Amino acid sequence: MAKFNKEKFKQSELFYIWKDTCTAWHFYLKEHDYKNTEILQAKHEGIHAAVSQFYGVDYHFTRTDDFFGLVTEDYSDWLFKEGTDA
């Protein structure tokens, strides 16, 4: 298993794809466009599985009306967080 370097990962193309996926997912959830949310959820789950398998880290998508992002289950480590409460 590769050692996870969060700052280096945040410069990778995979991070930008994951972040864009979560940003779009958040947008379509707000718009109640559930066809697109299903596609984006599936994309997120694939990236999540790859990152978890390769690095042993487990970030989950979370959102409220005020923010969204990727965070560990115990909310102690954010990969990214965007919104008014970021």
Q: What's the short version?
A:
The chain is of the alpha+beta class and 86 residues long. The chain has helices spanning 6-9, 13-30, 34-55; strands at residues 59-63, 67-72, 78-83. The model has no long low-confidence stretch (mean pLDDT 95).
Features:
about 90 residues; alpha+beta; three-stranded antiparallel beta sheet; 3 helices; globular
Describe this structure in words.
The chain is α+β, with helices and mostly antiparallel strands and 86 residues long. It has one domain (6-83). The chain is built from 3 helices and 3 strands; from the N terminus they run αααβββ. Strands 1-2-3 form a 3-stranded antiparallel β-sheet, covered by helices on one side. A hairpin with a 5-residue loop joins strand 2 and strand 3 (78-83). Helix 2 (13-30) packs antiparallel against helix 3 (34-55). The longest helix is centred in the middle third of the chain and has 22 residues, at 34-55. The N and C termini lie far apart (31 Å).
> In whole angstroms, how far apart are the ends?
31 Å
Secondary-structure element order, N to C: HHHEEE
Summarize the main sheet: 3 strands, antiparallel
How many separate domains make up the residues? 1
Helicity, in percent?
40-55%
* Class by alpha and beta content: alpha+beta
Based on CA atoms alone, the radius of gyration comes out at: 13 Å
List segments where confidence is low: pLDDT < 50 over at least 5 consecutive residues: none
What's the mean pLDDT score? 95
